[in-house]
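Q: For a teaching handout, I want to show students what a protein-ligand complex looks like in token form. Below are the inputs, and the small molecule is magnesium ion. Please produce the holo structure.
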Amino acid sequence: AAKRLGGRRHAFFRKELADQARRHLALDGELRSALVNRQFRLHYQPKVSLIDYSLEGFEALLRWDVPGQGMVSPGEFIPVAEDTGFIVPLGDWVLDEACRQQRAWLDQGMRPVPVAVNISPRHLRHRTAEDFRRIVDRHGLPPELIELEITEGAVMQDIDHAMSVLAALKAMGIRVAVDDFGTGHSSLSYLKKLPITTLKIDRSFINGVPQEREDASIVSTIIAMADMLGLDVVAEGVEKTEQANFLRHHNCTQVQGWLTGRPVPADAALDLLSKRLKSLAVPEPA
Ligand code: C2E
Ligand code: MG
Ligand code: MG
Ligand code: MG
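A: Here is the structure, written as tokens, with magnesium ion included.
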């Protein structure tokens, strides 16, 4: 009976896998036409100084504008694009579009602030530093105005390739941040050697601050470690004033979160950049 059950379970999983493969294939086709039909958008979330709440940069976040359905979040389709390989042309589009937008803002006389784009593990594996640089150069941008965000997982998947790409990017002046820091399993010995500029503390740790003792220790330790390694540090997912106060108290100088600004379309990001909104002032309670 056990064997028969096992056989049936096997058939069940095989069907599940086949269903998933079919779903992925269908979604992959939709994503490819979405790119041709210009249905992808970038929204921009401000990175803000904790010292004076001034705007210090943006992260570009991908959205799929499905006609009649509204914006679809990247969580719904990035994993599939990563799985099918479509992430490579899609990721190239994201970088190109962020550079195009950055160029347009500079041409409008806006103050230069870096724009960050997310590079998925598979995209990183299939591209060289030269590939990324060619896209940045196409728009005549100073490389230090573009930042690439990669996860620990992307580095650990192919350490040799990642190390050489990151080293070349650094030599070119393109900034690199490790995203969702603390959730992966990169070892400290690699972190020490990684040619990166910034650590972004994952939202899951910021969530528990300041109440949860463990989260508070992890966050203050990451900030201190970044400082010792000479890296910038950004706290992600800051929603509450108490979190910002804790971070400031522990010498974290930059935050990104709903407290200081949600991701917005390019025209609203321009409002933040231009004189129309001088500072993203958030009051600090007495
Ligand atoms: P991420 O790179 O860690 O981006 C931060 C995510 O946290 C964004 O979600 C942002 O909207 C959200 N967020 C920011 N502040 C807060 C906050 O205060 N509270 C909460 N609850 N959430 C906040 P989003 O835009 O849905 O993106 C999710 C993930 O999808 C990103 O995480 C990134 O890993 C991936 N992604 C987004 N755009 C791209 C892209 O162009 N390429 C690739 N490869 N991945 C992307
Ligand atoms: Mg990111
Ligand atoms: Mg993140
Ligand atoms: Mg995240």
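A: Two things your students might notice: The pocket of magnesium ion (ligand 4) is lined by residues 180, 203 (CB under 6 Å). The CA atoms of residues 151 and 179 lie 5 Å apart.
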